C-alpha cells in the first residue's frame, strides 16, 4: 500500500493507494475548513491520481466523524476576496480542482459521515457518487445568508442533482438537508445507518475495482459525454461571486458570522440557525442600539444640550426631540402598514412643518424619550412574528432602520459640531449604513466613495 501525506507534516489530507483503489482522508482541524492549503493539496492529489493509468476508484472521506468539510474558510475570503470586474475566461483554482475529480478516468466517491457545506459540498457534488450516514450527514449551502453565493460550482451542480426548485430552496433558503431527504432528492446515492455505510461503500468500491480497467474508465468517459459541459455556467458563477464577495454587505455579514463563533464546532453544528440571524436588518438593529447609547452620552452633556446646532434654530435638545419624533413616526408607519394601510403618513411638502411641530409639541425630557422611542421601534422590528423585512409599504423596515441609524449618526455630528468637536463614526457603524443605503435604496453616490463619511454628510445636506 502506497501512502502520500502530500509531503507535509501539517498536511490537510492523507492519500493512500492499494491496488486499483485510492483513498483520500480529509484531516484538517476541528471542522475541516476548506483552506487554500487544502485546495492546493486536493488539486495536486487529483492531478496525480488522474494520471495513474492503473486506478479505477478514488474514495474521499473524513477522519472527523462530525464534519466531512464544513465550508471554505470565511477568514480567507475576508482577507483576500479576489474580486474582479473582468469576466473570467478560464476556471479558477477551485473550479479546476472540482473538474479534475469530476473528469478523471477513475470513479470518484464521497463518503459523508457528518456535516458538509459550502465549498465542501461543491467538492462532493463534483464526485461521481455520494453516500451519506443517516442521522449524521447534513448538507448546507450557507453562502447566501453570508451575503455571497456558492462560487465553487454549487449553483450549477446542485440544480443538476436535485432539480432547480429544490436547489433554490437549499441555496436561497440556506437550510439544512438531512441524509434521508438528501437521498430522496438525489443529492446522495444512498443514505445508510452508521453500522452499514462503511460496509456498503467498501462493497461497491471492491465490486468496481474487480471489473476490467478499460471497461470502468471508458464507461465513465461515455457517461460524461452525455452530461452538459458545465464550464460556461461555472465561469458565470465565478464572475457573479466576485461581484459579491468584496461588497460592503458581504464583508460585514461574513465578519458578523465570525464574531458570532462561525467556524467553531459548536456553532457550525447549528449553522442554519446562525446564518438565519445575520441579516442586514438584525445587524442594523444591533448597531442602532449601540449608536443610541453613544449618542445619549454626548447629548446629555450640559454644554451640548443648550448649544445651537447646525440645524438652526435648534439647540441640542431640539435635535434630540426631532429624533424622538422620527422614531415615533417610524413606529407609527410600521404599525400602519401592518394594518394594511400603505399610504404615506406625511407628504413631502409638509414634512418639514410636521417635524417642527413635533419638536415644539414634545413634552418631557428628550433624552429619556429618545431611549424609549428607539427601544419601542427595535422591539417592534425584532418581533419573532415579523414577516415584513421586505415590506410592501412605501418605506420597508430595513430602510426605516437605516434611516434611523443614519439620523443618529448624522445628528451626533451636529451636536458635537455645536461645541467645536467632531464625530467620526466607527467603521462598524458606518459601513453597514452605507451598505443598506446602497443595496436597498440604490444610493449609488455612496458606492465606491473615497471618503464615505464626508459623502454621507454631503448627500444628507450636512
Descriptive overview:
The protein is α/β, with parallel strands linked by helices and 462 residues long. The chain folds into two domains: 2-275, 2-enoyl-CoA Hydratase, Chain A, domain 1, CATH 3.90.226; 280-459, dinb family like domain (Four Helix Bundle (Hemerythrin (Met), subunit A)). It contains 21 helices and eleven strands. The protein has helices at 36-50, 74-79, 93-103, 118-125, 154-162, 164-173, 179-185, 194-209, 213-225, 231-245, 248-259, 265-268, 271-275, 280-299, 302-306, 316-338, 351-361, 366-381, 397-418, 427-441, 452-459, and strands at 2-4, 13-18, 21-26, 57-62, 67-69, 107-112, 115-117, 129-133, 138-140, 177-178, 190-192. The strands form two sheets. A seven-stranded mixed β-sheet has the order 1-2-3-4-6-8-11, sandwiched between helices. It has a four-stranded mixed β-sheet with strand order 5-7-9-10. A hairpin with a 2-residue loop joins strand 2 (13-18) and strand 3. Helix 16 packs across helix 17 and helix 16 (316-338) runs parallel beside helix 18 (366-381). It is elongated. The model is unreliable at 385-394 (pLDDT under 50).
Topology:
Blueprint: E1 2-4, E2 13-18, E3 21-26, H1 36-50, E4 57-62, E5 67-69, H2 74-79, H3 93-103, E6 107-112, E7 115-117, H4 118-125, E8 129-133, E9 138-140, H5 154-162, H6 164-173, E10 177-178, H7 179-185, E11 190-192, H8 194-209, H9 213-225, H10 231-245, H11 248-259, H12 265-268, H13 271-275, H14 280-299, H15 302-306, H16 316-338, H17 351-361, H18 366-381, H19 397-418, H20 427-441, H21 452-459
Parallel strand pairs: 3-4, 4-6, 5-7, 6-8, 7-9, 8-11
Antiparallel strand pairs: 1-2, 2-3, 9-10
Helix pairs in contact: 1-3, 4-5, 5-6, 14-18, 14-19, 14-20, 16-17, 16-18, 16-19, 19-20
Amino acid at each position: 500500500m502506497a501512502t502520500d501525506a502530500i509531503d507535509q507534516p501539517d498536511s490537510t489530507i492523507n492519500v493512500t493507494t492499494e491496488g486499483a483503489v485510492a483513498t483520500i482522508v480529509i484531516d484538517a482541524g476541528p471542522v475541516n475548513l476548506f483552506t487554500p492549503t487544502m485546495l492546493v493539496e486536493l488539486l495536486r492529489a487529483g492531478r496525480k491520481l488522474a494520471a495513474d493509468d492503473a486506478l479505477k476508484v478514488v474514495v474521499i472521506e473524513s477522519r472527523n466523524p462530525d464534519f466531512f468539510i464544513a465550508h471554505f474558510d470565511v477568514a480567507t475570503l475576508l482577507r483576500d476576496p479576489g474580486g474582479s470586474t473582468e469576466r473570467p475566461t478560464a476556471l479558477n483554482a477551485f473550479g479546476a480542482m472540482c473538474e479534475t475529480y469530476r473528469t478523471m478516468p477513475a470513479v470518484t466517491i464521497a463518503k459523508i459521515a457528518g456535516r458538509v457545506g459550502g465549498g465542501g459540498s461543491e467538492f462532493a457534488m463534483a464526485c461521481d457518487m455520494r453516500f451519506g450516514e443517516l442521522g449524521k450527514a447534513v448538507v448546507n449551502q450557507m453562502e447566501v445568508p453570508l451575503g455571497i453565493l456558492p462560487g465553487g460550482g454549487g449553483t450549477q451542480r446542485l440544480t443538476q442533482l436535485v432539480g432547480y426548485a429544490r436547489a433554490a430552496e437549499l441555496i436561497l433558503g440556506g437550510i439544512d438537508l438531512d441524509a434521508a431527504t438528501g437521498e430522496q432528492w438525489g443529492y446522495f446515492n444512498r443514505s445508510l445507518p452508521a453500522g452499514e455505510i462503511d460496509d456498503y461503500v467498501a462493497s461497491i468500491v471492491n465490486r468496481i475495482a474487480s471489473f476490467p480497467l478499460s471497461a470502468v474508465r471508458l464507461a465513465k468517459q461515455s457517461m460524461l459525454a452525455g452530461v452538459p459541459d458545465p464550464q460556461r455556467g461555472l465561469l458565470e458563477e465565478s464572475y457573479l461571486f466576485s461581484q459579491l464577495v468584496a461588497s460592503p454587505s458581504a464583508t460585514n455579514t461574513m465578519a458578523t458570522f465570525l464574531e458570532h463563533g462561525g467556524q467553531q464546532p459548536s456553532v457550525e453544528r447549528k449553522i442554519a440557525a446562525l446564518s438565519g440571524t445575520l441579516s442586514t436588518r438584525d445587524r442594523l438593529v444591533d448597531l442602532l442600539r449601540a449608536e443610541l447609547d453613544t449618542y445619549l452620552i454626548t447629548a446629555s452633556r450640559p454644554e451640548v444640550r443648550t448649544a445651537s446646532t447646525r440645524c438652526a434654530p435648534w439647540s441640542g435638545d431640539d435635535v434630540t426631540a426631532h429624533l424622538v419624533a422620527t422614531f415615533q413616526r417610524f413606529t407609527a408607519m410600521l404599525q400602519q402598514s401592518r394594518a394594511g394601510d400603505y399610504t404615506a403618513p406625511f407628504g413631502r411638502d409638509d414634512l418639514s412643518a410636521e417635524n417642527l411641530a413635533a419638536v415644539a409639541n414634545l413634552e418631557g425630557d428628550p433624552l429619556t424619550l429618545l431611549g424609549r422611542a428607539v427601544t419601542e421601534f427595535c422591539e417592534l422590528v425584532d418581533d419573532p412574528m415579523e414577516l415584513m423585512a421586505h415590506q410592501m409599504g412605501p418605506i420597508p423596515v430595513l430602510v426605516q432602520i437605516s434611516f434611523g441609524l443614519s439620523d443618529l449618526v448624522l445628528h451626533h455630528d451636529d451636536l458635537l459640531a455645536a461645541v467645536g468637536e467632531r464625530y467620526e463614526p466607527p467603521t462598524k457603524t458606518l459601513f453597514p449604513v452605507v451598505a443598506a443605503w446602497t443595496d436597498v435604496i440604490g444610493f449609488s453616490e455612496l458606492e465606491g466613495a473615497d471618503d464615505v463619511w464626508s459623502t454621507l454628510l454631503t448627500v444628507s445636506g450636512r
